[in-house]
Request: fold
Amino acid sequence: MATFFQRLAKAAPIAFNSSFRGQSKSSFRIPFGAVAAVSGGISYLCYHSSPDLVYLDEIKEQTGPKVALNPDKWVEFKLQDTARVSHNTQLFRFTFDPNAKLGIYVASCLLTRAPLEQDAEGKPKYVIRPYTPISDPDAKGYFDLLIKVYPEGKMSQHFASLKPGDIVEMKGPIEKLRYTPNMKKHIGMIAGGTGITPMLQVIEAILKNPDDTTQVSLLYANVSPDDILLKQKLDILAASHPNLKVFYTVDNPTKSWIGGKGYISKDMAVKGLPAPGEDTLILVCGPPGMMKHISGDRAQDRSQGELSGILKELGYTEEMVFLIQQ
Reply:
């Protein structure tokens, strides 16, 4: 396993919330509350209609696949191993029962928590942070988190201190974007830093499905070439899949850098993204400064908010843009 992770970090950094703006959002996402209401109605119907239906419903619940995650309960996951991906980013592999499925869908994240603080009475106070798995949602018995370790980041510093065998409590999934194959003809993506993680979920879901013909264009911004996460993975995917185009830009280029320079500009967006249209969707995920520049950030209630920034200036509408919480 140690050799595997060393090779992984060296060669290919991986081996492996919310609603739409405007009136069209219901066509892309079914809120959890609606799912619960429908499920509750079905259970009521089964219970009051026929003993046979009740029996069949119970059998279905008993024989269905086990799910490792729970949206309503904190579950312990054991750290198997770690690998350094960049100067400030690490990969963390956690394990679970291989006979179960993790319970993550595209695209969603999970919550992590750790008792890193105390309240006024000296009782544990939890720090909670969301992270997006970058491994295949169908992977058996493990999942991977890619985490940037910040000097003042309480949770990321906690992750950096973990050793194989340590436990982390997690809960989920937390919905970001409910992706369905061919939901749009062309999807444009703008990512900054670790905002690449939900984009990768969507990209890999598209590329591994031969029936999904979606065209994907990614603009990926970072501080420097060394900060570009998953670059080799993305380059390999782009080279082997003609429906994926990737463009990189960095704030501090080196002399040998041949990609974009500076913040994502209107010109970069025009050249690298699909044009505004009914069959176009633009996904945006990154730090607050980038979001403000590109599209405006999400509203205080975490809804999509009002579109602004260069995407609005280029003619995209709120129905064409979806902001993903990092």
